[in-house]
Amino acid sequence: MSVIHTRLQDGTPVCIREVRKDDEARLKAGIARMSKQSRYLRFFSGMTVPPQHVIDRLVDADGHSHIAWGALRSDREDTPALGVVHAFRDEDDPSQAEFSVAVIDEYHGRGLARLLTLVMLIDCQREGLKELSVHLLSENEAARRMTRSLGGVKQGSEGAVVEFEIDIEQAIASLKHSLAEPGLSDVLKQLG
Question: According to the model, what pLDDT value does residue 133 have?
Answer without folding.
Answer: 97
